[in-house]
Specification:
The protein is an alpha+beta fold. It folds into four domains: 3-201, P-loop containing nucleotide triphosphate hydrolases (Rossmann fold), CATH 3.40.50.300; 207-293, Translation factors (Elongation Factor Tu (Ef-tu), domain 3, Beta Barrel), CATH 2.40.30.10; 393-477, Alpha-Beta Plaits, CATH 3.30.70.240; 488-606, Beta Barrel (OB fold (Dihydrolipoamide Acetyltransferase, E2P)), CATH 2.40.50.250. The strands form eight sheets. Strands 14-13-19-10-11-18-15-16 form an eight-stranded antiparallel β-sheet, with no helix packed on it. Strands 3-4-2-5-6-7-8 form a seven-stranded mixed β-sheet, sandwiched between helices. Strands 20, 21, 22, 23, 24, 36 and 37 form a seven-stranded antiparallel β-sheet that branches. The longest helix has 14 residues, at 141-154. The structure holds guanosine-5'-triphosphate (GTP) and magnesium ion. Guanosine-5'-triphosphate is lined by residues 16, 18-24, 45, 57-59, 80-82, 132-133, 135-136, 170-172.
């Protein structure tokens, strides 16, 4: 069958390392394509529509939108740049023929630039390189372009791929140009470039309808929605279709057809091949399934993405305070919610364990896990979670563990402490560049295990000025045990409310996580002990009252102010026999075994 193209459409993904300006560029594309009235107030980073995306200023899930440019419809996918959400980029690339690879004109290609470009090249996606943020004082566009060429060569791009078009941009101001000294005040050169260089979608002439499901949505009125690119054929409303999934074939009827128009959806009567369709009338559909015409059911290759690298145990909340702050506590609810997450989130997997109250969640990293937990707690869930663990592999008799390439950019003064900490974590330095500017760039290979919990420490060690990026390098023989936290925990030995007097007396023992008036229970961790063992303490101890009026000095117990632990800090803090209790209102690190006597018995069993 002959291949033909649909010249009215272009499908484009925007890919880059974190913060290189993808979502900001999409804002400007909206403005300049006439999607908004002149002077209309629109919020920055419009595509970051999820609550957590707005709060953190990062993109978490890849999202579709579209613009019209000189009569061509451009479907755009804004993708996240953080490595933990790499699965989203892999998913997005199944819908497009081209990608804009944004590279910061000062930072140059970074680990995630490499990852997303590798995926795009494997997918045979046409890449347009945009050197962005050329307005930065420290911009070095020519050098960065050379680094991009090196990256293409390193990734074994073929001649056609290396011959990519280059643009220079100030995405935030909506300016793009084809050379540094060209004159341009708009994105016109880039948008023209998208239409000229990205191939129009191709499909088989006269082939029946076929679409690959790449995303799922939900509408209160229409129920489950399947989103994906129409690979071949057309479909009209109410035509009988089938869904070819991993577990067999299911019949369905397209009750409503929609496409993206700007950031919203618009209903249409019939859709053409090459466009991105939002289909209602689907129920039991998964990402990766093929939806096609009932008369000729033929599956497209399934979406395959990289395996998860990190796992974490999710338990029901068994603390004495369970059920007081959240709406959903039961294990059935927890399981159902986690399974629902795997439907949309292609890089997450959930497994049952021997314990009916515990589920193993596998994903790409700590951030992905903490975003999931934070989302669940806002929905009203209570749960507890264990420490993230990396997923090792076995090859014959040998145990292999994931190793990451870590790129550090920091003041040369901090190199000492950083290399010391990383070598404790079995990292090896492989490269060191000193530009003579006072900042150095170092490259290490570190077991992923060693990086868990290290990022915060790194920020403290470099006084918040260091930049750490990492990417999975591959699997290597296990490098042996790592030192865990060198300090112990201060563990409450009874239930009650914390009292200032007791906390004041505990302050010399370490760093406290709670202030006065906080509900505690036996086994909850109220602070970090400054010795290498746990210490059971009574945070509820009142001052003995005497008849003699105490001197004023004694009355004023001035406590050092404490900041409650954030979810991320708590997860990084806990060790193997500890978990974090998460409710909509509180984050409490606690011992997995709450009773002190039971803990002692368990400890004896391990070390006789
Ligand atoms: N100097 C300068 N800063 C820019 C430009 N474009 C974006 N920024 C800034 O870069 C930061 C990150 O922008 P985003 O658009 O959120 O980056 P992103 O690539 O979408 O980030 P993730 O989705 O989290 O990977 C913001 O603070 C922007 O204001 C630019 O052209 N010049
Ligand atoms: Mg973004």
């Amino acid at each position: 069958m002959q291949l033909v193209t649909n010249p009215k459409i272009r499908n484009l993904a925007i890919i880059a390392h974190v913060d290189h300006g993808k979502t900001t560029l999409v804002d400007q594309m909206f403005r300049q394509s006439g999607l908004f009235r002149e002077n209309q107030e629109i919020r920055d980073r419009l595509m970051d529509s999820m609550e957590l995306e707005k709060e953190r200023g990062i993109t978490i899930s890849a999202k579709n939108c579209s613009i019209e440019w000189k009569g061509t419809k451009i479907n755009i996918l804004d993708t996240p740049g953080h490595a933990d959400f790499g699965g989203e980029v892999e998913r997005a690339l199944t819908m497009v023929d081209g990608a804009i690879l944004l590279v910061d004109a000062s930072e140059g290609p970074l680990p995630q630039t490499r990852f997303v470009l590798k995926k795009a090249l494997e997918n045979r996606t046409q890449v347009l390189v945009v050197i962005n943020k050329i307005d930065r004082q420290d911009a070095r566009p020519d050098e960065v372009l050379n680094e991009v060429y090196d990256l293409f060569i390193d990734l074994e791009a073929d001649d056609g791929q290396i011959d990519f078009p280059v643009f220079y941009a100030v995405g935030r101001e909506g300016i793009a140009k084809t050379s540094l000294d060209a004159d341009s005040n708009t994105l016109e050169p880039l948008l023209d470039g998208v239409v000229d260089h990205i191939p129009a979608p191709r499909f088989k002439e006269d082939a029946p309808f076929q679409m690959l499901v790449a995303d799922l949505g939900y509408s209160e009125f229409l129920g489950r929605l399947a989103v994906g690119r129409v690979m071949n054929g057309q479909v009209q409303r109410n035509e009988p279709l089938v869904c070819l999934g991993e577990e067999g074939t299911k019949a369905l009827r397209a009750t409503k057809l929609q496409v993206y128009r700007g950031t919203s959806m618009a209903e249409i009567g019939e859709i053409e091949a090459g466009d991105i369709l939002i289909l209602a009338g689907v129920e039991d559909v998964h990402i990766g399934d093929t939806i096609c015409h009932a008369d000729s059911p033929k599956a497209l290759p399934r979406l395959r993405i990289d395996e998860p690298t990190v796992s974490m145990r999710f338990f029901t909340n068994t603390s004495p305070l369970s059920g007081q702050e959240g709406k959903f506590v039961q294990s059935t609810k927890l399981r159902e919610r986690l399974l629902r997450e795997t439907m949309r989130n292609v890089s997450l997997q959930v497994e049952d364990t021997d314990d009916a109250e515990c589920f193993l969640v596998k994903g790409r990293g700590e951030l992905q896990m903490s975003i999931l937990i934070e989302t669940m707690r806002r929905e009203g869930f209570e749960l507890s979670v264990g420490r993230p663990e990396v997923i090792c592999r076995r090859e014959g008799t040998q145990l292999l563990e994931p190793i990451e390439e870590v790129y550090i950019d920091c003041d040369e003064d901090f190199l000492g402490i950083v290399s010391e900490k990383l070598s404790l974590r079995k990292g090896r330095m492989v490269n060191l560049v000193n530009h003579g500017t006072g900042r150095i760039r170092a490259q290490f290979q570190v077991p992923s295990r060693g990086l868990i919990g290290y990022r915060n420490e790194f920020l403290t060690d470099t006084r918040g000025t260091g930049i750490l990026n990492s990417m999975l390098l591959g699997y290597e023989p296990h490098r042996g045990a790592l030192p865990t936290r060198l300090t112990g925990s201060l563990v409450a030995d009874r239930s009650g409310k914390s009292v200032a007097y007791a906390l004041f007396n505990l302050e010399p023992r370490g760093r406290l996580f709670i202030g006065p008036g906080i509900e505690v229970y036996e086994g909850v961790i109220i602070g970090e002990h400054n010795r290498n063992s746990d210490l059971n303490v009574n945070p509820c101890k009142e001052k003995k009252l005497t008849n003699v009026r105490a001197s004023g000095k004694d009355e004023n117990t001035v406590l050092t102010p404490v900041l409650p632990l954030t979810l991320e800090q708590a997860i990084e803090f806990i060790v193997d026999d500890e978990v974090v209790e998460v409710t909509p209102k509180s984050i409490r690190p606690r011992k997995a075994i709450l009773s002190n006597s039971a803990r002692q018995i368990a400890a004896k069993r391990i070390t006789p």
